[in-house]
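Lab notebook page, bench 4
Experiment: in silico fold of construct C2
Operator: M.H.
Input chain length: 259 residues
Purpose: comparison with the prior construct
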Amino acid sequence: MSESNPTNAATAPVPVRTGTGTPPRTDAVTARGLALHGARGLVYGPVDLTLPAGALTVIQGPQGAGRSSLLLTLAGRMVPDASSELRVLGHRLPAERRAVQRAAAIAGFAGIDELDDGVTVGDTVRERLSWLAPWYRRVPRVDQRTFRELALPVFGERPLPRVESVVWDLDEVDAMLLRLTLALAQRPRLLVVDDVDQVRDTMRRSTVWSRLEAVAATGTTVIASVSSLDEVARTRWARQPHQVTLATGPHAVPAPDAA
């Protein structure tokens, strides 16, 4: 969807304070003049980004601001304008996009990782594991123990759905957490999550944010999008995430005291 040509309002990241025994911050994403034009005009950008590895970044922007396209670009699934400079996980894009695709997983994208409502949780997980396994390896039926081992890092203390449950019967939080579980089965270094506010209720959405924080705490870089421009400000965080706001012009807002 086209939008007016924004002014690049990228804010330089806060200098990292290091001391004896403190390793310097590494960055999962660095971008300069990152932009994408389509047949109908500008999709997003230009934007400068410096996003830290092993942290949660929240991309906020209204419908049509290019959030989904930006996330897919960072995951190596879309090719930006030729004038863009972009490195993700140390790989230059789009030249090394295959390496980024292997290291990045996606969740929450309409038309890409949507769940089949008529399939059980167990069969949904088995299908994902079969896709990830070598062609010669048969993946057995997924029992509750196998699902627990896979899903526990995502669901945490939240009760797990039964593998016999049909996806249709899952509430919106469990459906989103299942999509995250399927994405993390790839064991990615980078997880990008679109449209977190498809979980409509603010309080219930906070559960998803807390679980994304938990995933990032394990060392996986997480970049997630939401349509609300004040989502970060009105959400309670264990640690303030980094922010990227896509409105009249994309600009990055580093988290306070980020290291």
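Observations: The domain at 27-118+189-253 is CATH 3.40.50.300 (Rossmann fold). The helical segments are 67-74, 97-103, 121-132, 144-155, 172-184, 202-217.
Next step: discuss at group meeting.
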